[in-house]
Every structure is written in C-alpha cells, then in structure tokens.
Amino acid sequence: MGLPKFKWRRLAQALGIGLAIGVLEAICVVSFLPSRWADRIGDLPLQPASYLVTLLAKSQHPGFEDQAGYFLLVVLLQWLIYSGVVYILLAISWKKPDKVSGR
C-alpha cells in the first residue's frame, strides 16, 4: 500500500469543500444558535489555528497592530486545515484497486 499521487484536481476539490464547510459552519452558528451559545460554540472551530496565531501575536509582527490581521489568519489557517483533512479523505476514498490482487 503506497501513498496516493498528488493531483491538482483533488486539491481544488478539497479547497472548495473545505471553504464550504467553513462557510456553512459559520452560517449555522450565527443563524441557528442562540446568542449565548453562539459565543461559546463559535470559538471552538477556530481552536486548532488559534494556538499558532497566539504564538505569532506574542512576537508582535509590525503591521498587525489592530489584531484584524490575526483574525483573518486564523480563518485562513482553519480553512487550510479543513481542506487538508478533506484532501486526505478524498485521496483515501478514491484510491484505485490494485490490478493484481483486486483490492
């Protein structure tokens, strides 16, 4: 069992699906949850990317003084994390069966 080959088409699909997941998640949290719950649950999806951005914020890069850049960076990193997971799932699910063994 080897690694699946890199495909640009699969990457484009994963980026699109990852973006759709992020947008749908944001719409669901904002639209369907009460404001008290939305404040608590709204931060959970951004947790994996927020740790890296917190480390960057401590180094105080110039140009990010208002913290708006860090917020956009969290959203971008979370989109890339979703897309990476989707890419791996697509690569596993689309792996062609071996011609010799039939698996």
The domain tally reads 1
How much helix is in the residues?
55-70%
Q: Structural class, judged by helices and strands?
A: mainly alpha
Strand fraction equals: under 5%
Order of helices and strands: HHHH
Q: The biggest beta sheet, please?
A: none
Report the average pLDDT across residues. 75
**Extended strand count:** 0
Put simply, the count of helices is: 4
What does the model show?
Helices cover 68% and strands 0% of the residues. α1 crosses α4 (68-93) and α3 (47-58) crosses α4. By secondary structure, it is mainly alpha-helical. It has one domain (8-93). The chain is globular and about 45 Å long. The protein is built from four helices and no strands. The chain has helices spanning 8-32, 35-41, 47-58, 68-93. The model has no long low-confidence stretch (mean pLDDT 75).
Task: Record keyword descriptors for this entry.
mainly alpha, 103 residues, single chain, 4 helices
Question: Could you give a short description of this structure?
Answer:
The chain has 103 residues and is mainly α. 68% of the residues lie in helices and 0% in strands.
Question: How are the SSEs ordered, and which strands pair?
Answer:
Elements lengths: L7 H25 L2 H7 L5 H12 L9 H26 L10
